[in-house]
Design a protein that fits this description.
Layout (H helix, E strand, L loop, with lengths): L2 H5 L3 E4 L10 E4 L8 E2 L12 E7 L7 H14 E12 L21 H4 L5 H4 L3 E9 L10 H13 L1 H7 L8 E8 L2
Parallel strand pairs: 1-2, 1-4, 2-3, 4-5
Antiparallel strand pairs: 5-7, 6-7
Helix pairs in contact: 5-6
């Protein structure tokens, strides 16, 4: 992508906290955050079809499914045609997923609820296509002692994700999952 193309795109990091992703404008509920925009989801203070991409890292698990659909509906109206939404959530087998402030739990097949056969198109205000899904055994930015093991485990988990989800209890669970959906209608 050309640098000027990147500069002209509006990318929003929902729930950015103290560190908006590089190239993204942060939106967060906390006034003490490093967000450029203070707001509460599902309300997005952007014009219709003005945003090229959203990113939500460890945000959506704090909402019930009805609220997640409302967030997706708001994002769908703000997204340009072919705009993307990158979602990163703790995997349901991660012990941290059971924190008291988490209201939804995610598995490898959870994104299908958003994109499958138009099942919830009217709830989310448009159609999305699932572009990719990936599971991570440890944090994506893992810098520990055995990076080769983490890389191998990530490869194994993504080779047979549904089977590995069921077996993940034996190797400590799956830390998080990332998926990208694209607005197609």
């Amino acid at each position: 992508m050309l640098e000027e193309d990147f500069m002209n795109k509006i990318l929003i990091d929902l729930g950015c906290g103290q560190a908006p992703a590089p190239g993204y404008i942060g939106l967060d509920i906390k006034r003490t955050s490093k967000a450029a925009v203070i707001g509460r989801l599902p309300h997005l203070p952007f014009k219709n079809e003005s945003v090229h991409g959203f990113r939500a890292r460890h945000v959506l698990e704090h909402f019930f499914s009805e609220e997640i659909f409302a967030i997706l509906r708001a994002a769908s109206s703000c997204l340009v045609q072919d705009g993307e939404f990158i979602i990163i959530v703790p995997h349901g087998t991660n012990p941290a997923a059971a924190q008291l402030d988490h209201k939804s739990y995610w598995s490898y097949n959870s994104p299908l609820t958003i994109v499958k056969d138009g099942l919830h198109d009217e709830w989310i205000g448009g159609k999305f296509k699932l572009e990719c899904r990936k599971l991570y055994w440890m944090r994506q930015d893992y810098q520990g002692r055995f990076p080769w093991l983490v890389k191998w485990m990530n490869w194994m988990i993504n080779k047979r994700p549904v089977v590995m989800e069921r077996l993940s209890y034996y190797f400590g669970g799956i830390y998080e999952m990332e998926f990208k959906i694209r607005k197609i209608g």
